[in-house]
Design brief:
By secondary structure, the chain is of the alpha+beta class. It has helices spanning 2-37, 42-56, 89-93, 104-109, 141-187, 236-254, 260-275, 365-375, 380-394; strands at 62-67, 73-79, 100-101, 115-121, 124-131, 198-205, 213-219, 224-232, 281-289, 294-300, 306-309, 312-315, 319-320, 335-338, 343-348, 404-411. The radius of gyration is 35 Å and the shape is elongated.
Amino acid sequence: MVDDVFTYRSKVRKLEEKLYYKEIQVNALSQITREINENAPAETLYLRFHNYLRIQMGVDRMLLLFKDDDGQWCIKSNIGYDTLPDVDFESILMPYIQPEFLNKKDKRELTDLEYIIPVRHKETPIAYVLLGHFNDKLKEQDNYDFVATLANIIAVAIENKRLFNRQLQQEKFNNEIKLATEVQRMLIPDKWPESQSFEVSSIYRPLWNIGGDYLDCIKIDEERTAFCIADVSGKGVAAAMLMANFQAILHQVIKSKISLDKLVCELNKAVVHITNSEKIITFFIAVYNSRTREMQYINAGHVPPVLFMGGKMYFLDQGTTLLGAVEELPMPGITNLIIQPNSTLVLYTDGITDLVDQNGCSFEDEILFRFVENNCSLHVKAFNTSLLQELETFNSSDNFPDDIAVLTCKLCPCS
C-alpha cells in the first residue's frame, strides 16, 4: 500500500515537472512570437533564444550561426565561451541536413558540443544551432525537438526580415536610379545648338543607365560657344548627381563673362566644397569665337581632345591639374588657337581607350587618331555613327566596360 502511494506520488511529480517545462516552452514560444509580430530586431531574438537555453534549459554550451553578407558563417550568439572556436564552419556544418548528434570527428573539433540543428529555408541552410549538454533532468528528445522548433521560428523570422529589408533597399535603389536617369537625360541634350560656324554631334553610352561622364555645348553669346567634357571618379547614382551639380554651376558661372582660367578655378572650388575632396573630376573646356575664329581652351587633367586641322593632328593637353583634388588650383594656363576652315574637334572620355578586343588588345589612342584622320571629311553625325560602329565591332564584351562619351565638332564648316 505504501509502495503504491510512493509510486503514485512519483508519477505525479514527474507529470508536474513535465507540465512545468511544457508551460515554460509555451511561454517562450508565445513571447518570441509576440516579439516577431512586433518586428523586434534580430539582436532581441538572439538574446531571447540565448536566455531561454541558458536559464530555462540549463544548456552549458551553444553556438548560433547565421551567414553574413559575405557568405561566411558568423556566430551571432553563444553560451559558455570566453574565446570563440576558430574552425572551418562551412566544411563542418554543410553535411548535416537534419537535427542529429555530431559525429566523433566533428566533436573533436567542436569541444563539448554534441548536437546540431540545421535551419533550412527552401532547401538552403540559413542558420545552425550547435548544442552542448542540457540540465540532466531535461536531456530528453522532446527538448531537443523544441529547441529545433524555436530555432526554426527565430531563423526564418530573421531571414524574412532580411529579405524584406533587401527588397526595400532594392526599391529605394531603383527609385534612385530612376531619378538619376531622369537627371542624366536632362544633362545630355537630345539636340545641340545649330550654327553656320560649327556643327556638333555626340555619342553617349553610360556603363549602367546612368554614369559619370558629361559633355556639353553651351552658347555663351552671339559669337562665343563653349565645348566641354568631364569625367567624375566613380560610377552610378553618386557620380551622376555630382555631375548634375557640376553642370548647373558651370552654366551659371559661364554666363557671367568670367575669364576661362577663373571659371576653371571656380569650378574646382565648387567640387571641393561639394565632395570634401573625396571625388575628382577631369575636365576640358574650349571657347570658340565664330567671328574671330579664335579658340581658347584649358585641359584640367582630362584625356586630351584631338583637333584635326590643316592636315595635322593637334592634342589639346595644356592647362592645369584635375578638379577637386586641392582647394587652390594651380593657375590654369589658357591656350589660344586660330581655327582653320573645316577643322574637326573630337572630345572623348577614357572609356573609349579602355575597350578591349577578343585578343586582349586595347583600343589605343593611335587607332582613334587614325580614325579621325580618315573620316574628318564626314558630317559630324555620320562621323559619330561610323565611330560607334567601329567601337562596337572592336569591343569583345556584350556591353561597354565603361561609360562612353564623345563630342564631335566641325568648326568653320562653311568657309
